[in-house]
Design brief:
The structure holds two protein chains of two kinds. By secondary structure, chain A is an alpha/beta fold. Chain A folds into three domains: 311 residues, ABC transporter transmembrane region fold (Up-down Bundle); 155 residues, 3-Layer(aba) Sandwich (Rossmann fold), CATH 3.40.50; 75 residues, 3-Layer(aba) Sandwich (Rossmann fold), CATH 3.40.50.300. Chain A is 65% helix and 10% strand. A six-stranded mixed β-sheet of chain A has the order 6-7-8-3-9-10. A four-stranded antiparallel β-sheet of chain A has the order 2-1-4-5, with no helix packed on it. The longest helix of chain A is centred in the middle third of the chain and has 53 residues. The radius of gyration of chain A is 37 Å and the shape is elongated. The relative contact order of chain A is 0.08. Chain B is an alpha/beta fold. Chain B folds into two domains: 316 residues, ABC transporter transmembrane region fold (Up-down Bundle), CATH 1.20.1560; 234 residues, Rossmann fold. In chain B, the strands form two sheets. Chain B has a six-stranded mixed β-sheet with strand order 6-7-8-3-9-10, with helices on both faces. A four-stranded antiparallel β-sheet of chain B has the order 2-1-4-5, with helices on one face. The longest helix of chain B is centred in the N-terminal third of the chain and has 50 residues. The chains are: A alpha/beta, B alpha/beta.
């Protein structure tokens, strides 16, 4: 993963920031250098007992001017760096968000929501911190380095050499540190991600925790993860502290050496007292670039960790790819679907095995089967939420992988088993696939889905906000909204994944009778557990363990002594009771 | 959720609790800091002596001796600093850990209304990101800044002995630095609170879009969603840029002031010497210059501490807001444990609505006999699920009373109430843990017993998994089908073996054959248990002793399956619809 492109995107702000930051180091060191000059004037004046006020005043005036120059330059570099930083972080956030939008379902199956959120927020902050110190301080620190060593050599070669000799030791200690530190930082971030994920889960599952009194259990799970994070973080800080004490001791040694050597040189009149003071102050300032390097190493470790963690969002192409020049259905879609030798699985376990189905245009197909038989997996392949492992799916005799992905999905109304609605208004939720849709159209589909009347009773009607920040809806109400949402697309193919399971019988019946007309010239595939709904379908498919075990119309299947007949008899049980009562009434 | 701004004193009070948990370490750090500070005060004095007595008097032995003292003090200073850093890390991590633990505990205690009305993403961001922001303040590094005030006093005492006038000049640093600080303060807090709120919003947008990823894909929403995201993202950009821009002007001011004081020092020093003041030597001037710089350090530290505090307080305010939520569902002080004597449930003239102006239940009365199996049918939104939530006191009723074996549920402890009631939720909730952990939820139950219950309800798929009960189900059970999730959720309740069971559409996604198996098993499992079954599928309610037909929060019909069918009313109609052919 490479974030350099964000640096390039804002290269003007970055360059100015580094430039001004570098330039500000000149007055910064100028202040110290000038201090030595003024002290020398003072010393000479005291020694000769004659004060040249004009010269000293002029020197102090220049001193003040240098100070102001430093202030102006530091404002400038901070301004550019502020803009660089805010912009870059905004751009990276946008990229991450966009990348998340493109991810296919497989990605979300494998990742944890809380961890993705941690990656796209706090790991992002780490990338920015690194960029920030580089852009704001980088120039200044390079400048300090140059302008500390330069004048030192200018004042005295030996003093300069002593200061320079510290560098290889300091730098090798940093390199050594970085090697050990980076893995600890990465593991700290990973552990933080785990804590975030678990926190997210516990908040999501609050109602479960209440019902099962499992607060303690949940807290102990959280605690385990947090303990782990805490220990890693302490270790991390320990490593940092060791590095910083190493470097500070090296600097102390250098300082004393310079004080001693310089002192002897002052006594021998080889350098002035002012020059010695300047050298000493400079060595003290040498701590800044050194600390900066430490900070850079530490921030770079977080940056590298973030880079690694974000790579799986930003770098990996989505599993499901949109073909470059896909067929966009400029002609009308007929809606004929064909599965040819389709196999598909999760984690190396096949859930769909070698399936062949021919679904005629405008026909209605029902999928039946036990839990885990592969029904949902099968229909998820049609809008390409997942891609097949082998075999092909054809719509109107074109392989769906050759179709333009957005066009394909816009032609399919997919009504999921578990309804997800966004915390937006009802209107926006229904018009989710076509935000431009007019109110008339929205009301029309709401009426078909038998949810219009309910919406009208809400205080803000179609503008009522639902979800986290608004009205709580029942399972059935949400399912009906999701049907309305799908119908608004006017799709040629409609897929129901047991999407009426939470709707009551009466409403279901109403929806069905209205839908009947609407679905006439569309291809419909539905999964259901209620056999009463499959009687009139063109085709009933029964799946077991990923394979088709029975296929045909009700009239045919009921005659074969198979699974369908068993199922049917199970559910017809109730009917038998009814007829018994009927008979009883008639006194038979 | 907008956060209100708390007063500093209040926040500090809440905060100190966490720091004081590491009292002993804090005390040690306190000593180490004092030692460091003393050395810091002494060092320039030694340097000034080196200059005046060693260098300018050309005394090499004195020079060497003082340099050795200087060096050893510096090394001890570094060692103390190392200790301080280490302790700060330990104190910081511990305090953060404790704070997070407390907040999580508190959040776990909030009633469901809290979770219904607060965005998950934002709450998470408060518990994760905002608590991370507290790191500095909670590490006790504030202590260093505060103790550096001693450095100021030490410096003043030494300065006074050298030159009173120069001391006063140097001391100008203090009011000027405070001025710089004051400029900073007010606006930063507001900006930070604003940006934290916006970061929270960004997290919740991201969270929602991850959860709704499939819907987004199905409806080809990436362009619109990105547009919407950009609105908040741009807001955050503007807020952070504004904050950094203002900081660019204000932050360097403290440094400027300190250099200006150095200039004044030099000027005044030379003037004094010029007027024949012998106190002023080169060593003394160096001493004052270094002190004026060293004086700046504590001031800068305090300034950055205030920034740090602003930053942390903004976050802490958001964290504290999670605490100060009024919970409507509370235990009474004198609440006793629920004592079950058979499991009679009475709802008496109950009024309830999720919002004030629309009642879901209106004057609702229902009496469920001990060990009775009652089924509730009715259209969506009729209030079926609501009843189950009211009995488990997930929500509180507005009016009336709910009694279990004569005890008002508002008077018994929540724990005991929920221990006796098992609710199988309409939407199964699973942790991304193993199947075993999801069934146990912390209770120790032998595997054989788990397998037994799983096989009773036909969840044999678990046995077929290569890892059996150790199989990880993925986030929200993503590796399982809906039916399998429901079966596990069902099994979980049975595993905990409560006396009162509420099945809220517990089998809606389960295939008819497995359901039939469950039906048969239920008769036995539910023996001696009071059971409420909420269902659409009428085949599920046949085993009930009594069926209630609910419409608009009222009982429309009730009776046994056969009675209701003979009545040829609402239920009969429903029945006909379901078995129309």
């Amino acid at each position: 993963m490479n974030f350099n492109k964000y640096l390039v995107e804002n290269k003007i702000d970055l360059s100015f920031s580094i430039l001004f930051s570098f330039l500000s180091s000149i007055p910064f060191m100028g202040i110290i250098f000038y201090l030595g000059i003024i002290i020398d004037s003072l010393y000479i004046s005291i020694a000769s007992n004659s004060f040249n006020n004009e010269v000293i005043l002029a020197q102090i005036l220049i001193f003040v001017l240098i100070i102001l120059l430093e202030y102006i330059l530091s404002i400038l570099y901070q301004l550019f760096s502020a803009r660089f930083n805010s912009k870059t972080s905004k751009n990276i956030r946008t990229s991450v968000f966009k990348a998340l939008q493109e991810k296919s379902h497989k990605y979300y199956d494998e990742e944890n929501t809380g961890d993705i959120v941690a990656k796209s927020t706090s790991d992002l902050v780490n990338i920015n911190n690194f960029f920030y110190v580089l852009s704001a301080q980088g120039g200044l620190m390079i400048g300090l380095f140059v302008f500390i060593l330069g004048p030192l050599f200018y004042i005295d070669f030996v003093l300069g050499f002593i200061a320079l000799s510290s560098l290889p030791i300091l730098i090798s200690s940093l390199i050594f540190f970085e090697k050990k530190y980076n893995p600890i930082e990465l593991s700290s971030r990973e552990k933080y991600g785990k804590v975030s994920a678990r926190v997210a889960e516990s908040i999501d599952n609050s109602i479960l925790t209440k019902i099962f009194n499992s607060e303690t259990h949940n807290m102990s799970k959280l605690k385990l993860l947090m303990d782990d994070l805490k220990l890693t973080n302490i270790l991390k800080n320990k490593k940092q502290a060791i590095l910083s004490i190493q470097d500070k001791i090296i600097l102390s040694v250098i300082y004393s050496l310079i004080l001693f050597t310089g002192g002897i040189k002052v006594i021998n009149n080889q350098i002035t007292i002012g020059e010695l003071v300047t050298s000493l102050l400079m060595i003290q300032y040498l701590i800044y670039p050194i600390m900066f390097l430490i900070q850079i190493v530490v921030f770079r470790a977080s940056y590298k960790a973030a880079e690694k963690r974000l790579a799986n969002i930003l770098e990996h192409p989505p599993h499901v790819l949109n073909p470059g020049n896909g067929n966009k259905f400029n002609h009308t879609m007929r809606g004929e679907i064909k599965f040819a030798d389709v196999s598909f699985g999760y984690n190396n376990k096949l859930v769909i095995k070698n399936i062949n189905i021919q679904i005629e245009a405008n026909s209605t197909v029902a999928l039946l089967g036990a839990s885990g038989s592969g029904k949902s997996a099968l229909i998820n392949l049609i809008p390409r939420f997942y891609d097949v492992d082998s075999g092909s799916i054809f719509i109107d005799e074109v392989d769906i992988t050759e179709l333009d992905l957005p066009s394909l999905r816009r032609k399919i109304g997919f009504i999921d088993q578990e309804t997800f609605l966004f915390s937006k208004s009802i209107k926006e939720n229904i018009a989710f696939g076509n935000p431009e849709a007019g109110m008339e159209k929205i009301i029309e589909v709401a009426k078909i889905s038998q949810i219009h009347q309910f919406i009208e009773e809400l205080p803000e009607k179609y503008d009522t906000v639902i979800g986290e920040r608004g009205v709580t809806l029942s399972g059935g109400q949400r399912q009906r909204l999701s049907i309305a949402r799908a119908l608004l697309l006017d799709p040629k193919i409609i897929i129901f994944d047991d999407s009426l399971s939470a709707v009551d019988i009466k409403t279901e019946h109403k929806i069905q009778s209205v839908l009947e007309v609407l679905l006439k010239d569309r291809t419909v595939i539905f999964i259901t557990q209620r056999l009463s709904t499959v009687l009139n379908t063109d085709k009933i498919i029964i799946l077991a363990k990923g394979e088709i075990v029975e296929i045909g119309r009700h009239e045919t299947l009921i005659k074969t002594n198979g699974i369908y007949r068993d199922l049917f008899e199970t559910q017809i049980d109730g009917l038998m009771d009814l007829s018994r009562i009927e008979l009883g009434r008639k006194g038979i | 959720m907008e956060s209100k701004i708390h007063s500093d004193r209040y926040l500090l009070q809440r905060l100190s609790k966490y720091l004081l948990q590491s009292k002993f370490k804090l005390f040690l750090t306190f000593i180490l800091i004092l030692l460091s500070i003393s050395i810091q005060i002494l060092l320039p004095l030694i340097l000034s002596t080196i200059i005046d007595n060693g260098l300018l008097n050309s005394n090499q032995t004195l020079l060497l001796r003082y340099i050795l003292i200087y060096f050893s003090l510096q090394i001890s200073y570094n060692l103390f600093q190392y200790g301080i850093e280490l302790y700060f890390a330990v104190i910081g991590e511990t305090s953060i850990y404790n704070l997070r633990l407390d907040v999580l505990k508190k959040v776990h205690q909030h009633d469901q209304v809290f979770f219904d009305t607060h965005s998950t993403g934002d709450t998470i961001s408060r518990i994760t990101t905002d608590i991370e922001n507290m790191q500095h303040l909670l590490s006790g590094s504030a202590l260093y800044s505060i103790l550096s005030i001693f450095q100021i006093f030490g410096i003043i005492i030494i300065m006074l002995q050298n030159s009173i006038i120069l001391t006063f000049v140097t001391l100008l640093t203090i009011p000027l630095s405070y001025l710089a600080m004051w400029l900073n303060k007010k606006h930063i807090r507001e900006v930070l609170q604003e940006s934290s709120d916006q970061i929270g919003e960004i997290s919740s947008i991201i969270t929602e879009n991850i959860l709704g990823a499939k819907v987004n894909a199905a409806y080809v929403r990436s362009i619109e969603n990105t547009k919407e995201f950009e609105i908040t993202n741009n807001k955050l950009f503007r807020t952070t840029f504004r904050a950094n821009r203002n900081a660019a002007f204000i932050q360097p001011i403290a440094g400027v002031f300190s250099y200006l004081i150095m200039a004044t020092l030099l000027l005044v020093g030379i003037m004094l010497r010029n007027n024949g003041n012998d106190e002023i030597t080169v060593g003394v001037m160096v001493l004052f210059i270094i002190y004026s710089r060293n004086l700046r350090d504590p001031i800068v530290q305090i300034t950055s501490l205030t920034n740090q505090i602003q930053n942390s307080f903004a976050s802490f305010g958001r964290i504290i807001s999670l605490y100060d939520i009024h919970n409507s569902i509370n235990e009474k002080d004198d609440s006793r444990d629920l004592v079950l004597k058979g499991g009679n449930i009475e709802l008496k003239e109950v009024d309830f609505g999720y919002s004030e102006n629309s009642l879901v239940l209106n004057n609702f009365t229902l009496n469920i006999n001990p060990c009775e199996k009652i089924a509730i049918v009715g259209h969506t939104g009729a209030g079926k699920s609501t009843i189950s939530r009211l009995i488990a006191r997930i929500y509180d009723i507005n009016k009336g009373a709910i009694l279990i074996d004569g005890q008002n549920i508002q008077n018994v402890s929540l724990r005991s109430l929920r221990e006796h009631i098992g609710v199988v939720l309409q939407e199964p909730i699973l942790y991304s843990d193993s199947i075993r952990d999801n069934l146990n939820l912390g209770k120790i139950i032998p595997d054989e017993q788990l397998y037994e219950i799983l096989s009773i309800i036909g969840a044999d798929f678990v046995k077929e998994f290569p890892n059996g009960l150790d199989t990880l189900v993925g986030e929200r059970g993503s590796r399982l089908s809906s039916g399998q999730k429901q079966l596990l959720s069902f099994a979980r309740t049975l595993v905990h073996n409560p006396e009162i069971i509420i099945l809220d559409e517990a089998t809606s996604s389960i295939d008819p054959q497995t359901e039939l198996l469950i039906q048969r098993a239920l008769n036995k499992i539910l023996e001696n248990k009071t059971t409420i079954m909420i269902a659409h599928r009428l085949s599920t309610v046949k085993i009930a002793d009594r069926i209630i037909v609910l419409a608009d929060g009222k009982i429309k019909e009730q009776g046994s399956f056969e009675e209701l069918l003979s009545k040829r009313g609402e239920f009969f109609e429903l029945y006909n619809l379901q078995f129309k052919n």
